[in-house]
Design goal:
single chain; globular; 30% strand; mainly beta; 1 helix; Jelly Rolls
Length: 271
């Protein structure tokens, strides 16, 4: 009996040693920092952050920063008030509001604070809304290595989605969602490889295609090489002050190639 027990222990030890060696070899084969197969990278609140598409590979040139949305409190404002054009630092970046509730987007935070950075908060927005930004002198090409960086926070079941406006006035919302983010956190993402739905600019609701083959609703292959505006949308009414449901946005950066606007097209008719 003692001999049999010793043999079983030896076999078990050798099997465990073999498993450890295989695991180590697998870890060595995987590039440093890359998660195991089937595991994506996740941000705050367990949200998976889509990376890879739009990022420069070795030998490629990263897309340049076209514009940055930095928030500031002008001397005319005190306390928490509706966001206005003057809250954007860069005078060459225009803000556009879509939906009646967009004008109820409020400022939040403290200018210059790292703990509670200044930005915008949707708690008083009692309907769906979208806010976009455009550079006065250029369209933006968001194909290839172009990407967007933004700081976002959500409460309740609220979801932040990217929005683009094309030169013909078409407003599109992507199937990329940012949700369950309890603390303001930065995400980086590409606008390529996403699916898009048309968005009604007044009601801020998604639209189908007409005609729609086989009841298809996704917009097929939108041209993102010349985008007029880039921004965000919340398709759900907020709950008011408190933690019931809202979104919060901080600094936003848009990386992509500049496409000069034609003379006379420097101002959009949407406010």
């Amino acid at each position: 009996m003692p001999v049999h027990t010793s043999t079983r222990c030896a076999v078990g030890f050798l099997a465990a040693l073999s498993l450890i060696c295989c695991t180590c070899a697998s870890a060595q084969d995987r590039p440093v920092g890359q998660p195991p197969q089937g595991q994506g990278q996740r941000g705050q609140g367990g949200q998976e952050v889509r990376r890879g598409a739009g990022q420069a590979r070795p030998g490629e040139v990263a897309a340049p920063l076209l514009f940055k949305v930095e928030w500031v409190r002008p001397s005319s404002q005190t306390g928490q008030v509706p966001m206005v054009q003057e809250n954007v630092v860069d005078p060459n970046v225009e803000v556009k509001w879509y939906g009646a509730a967009a004008k109820k987007l409020l400022t939040t935070g403290t200018p210059g604070s790292d703990l509670t950075p200044f930005g915008v908060w949707s708690g008083e927005c009692d309907g769906p809304f979208a806010v976009t930004f455009r550079q006065k002198t250029n369209f933006v090409d968001v194909t290839g290595n172009a990407n967007v960086h933004w700081f976002v926070k959500t409460s309740g079941f609220h979801v932040v989605r990217p929005v683009v406006k094309l030169p013909d006035g078409t407003l599109l919302v992507a199937d990329l969602s940012f949700e369950s983010i309890p603390m303001l956190a930065q995400s980086q993402f590409s606008l390529m490889g996403l699916r898009w739905l048309k968005l009604d600019p007044d009601r801020v609701v998604t639209l189908g295609r007409n005609p729609a083959p086989a009841n298809e609703t996704w917009v097929p292959d939108p041209d993102l090489s010349k985008v007029d505006e880039v921004g965000f949308v919340d398709l759900m009414p907020s709950s008011g002050h408190g933690t019931g449901g809202y979104i919060q946005l901080g600094q936003i950066e848009v990386y992509g190639k500049a496409v000069p606007r034609e003379a006379g097209s420097t101002t959009s008719n949407k406010q």
